Structures are given as structure tokens and as C-alpha cells.
Amino acid sequence: MSPAALPPNPNLEQLKKQAKSLIKGLRSADPASAQRLRQALTHWSERTDEEIFQTKFSLKNAQLVIAREYGFECWADLKRHVESCRATKTISERGARGASRV
Questions:
Q1: How many whole angstroms from its chain centre is CA 79?
Q2: Phi, psi at 21, each rounded to 5°
Q3: Please, is 28 exposed, middle or buried when counting C-beta atoms within 10 Å of its C-beta (0-12, 13-18, 19+)?
Q4: Residue 68 — very low, low, confident or very high, per pLDDT cuts 50/70/90?
Q5: Burial class, 49, CB count within 10 angstroms (exposed 0-12 / middle 13-18 / buried 19+)
Q6: Distances from the Cα of 88 to the Cαs of 42, 68, 84, 93, in angstroms?
Q7: For the whole model, what pTM was predicted?
Q8: Are the beta carbons of 40 and 72 closer than 8 angstroms?
């Protein structure tokens, strides 16, 4: 599975909402959520839907799935990338505002 592309202006809060949505899907026994988990976490690849649904997943686990879906090894790497994108955008916006004042 190739990683999903992050939006041009990734938002950490939106990514956290995606993780919470994944947890809700697992709690409601959504087969697509179980499949996402199996694809992102190889140590779960042989588990049945029922085994997955019987496990209580933390936000940290769901964040790891989201990070892997976007091609990052862990949530911390994804978070650093998003923060870096925001910092770069802020710097370029400041530069554009400064150039327009000249």
C-alpha cells in the first residue's frame, strides 16, 4: 500500500480527529477500520476482525496508524513534519508581506 498524500497545508488537529475517528470505527466494529489497522501495523496483519474489535485501542495506537498511512514511521515524525510545514509557510508569508511593503 502506498502512503496517502498529506494535504498542502496539513493540520495537526485534523490528523488527531482522524485518529479519534479510527478509534470510533474500531469500537463500532467497522471492518474497514480493522483493515486499516492491519495494513498499517504489520504485527496485527494476521488478526481477525473479531480479535481486533475485542482490543481496546488508545489514541496513541490510532495516531500510529494515521502516521503510517501517511508514510511516517511514527506519530512524532508526522507531527514534526506538520510543524515544519507550518513554520515554512509562516516564514514565506512574512517574506511576502515584507516584499509588498517595499
A1: 9
A2: -65, -40
A3: exposed
A4: very high
A5: middle
A6: 33, 23, 6, 9
A7: 0.82
A8: no
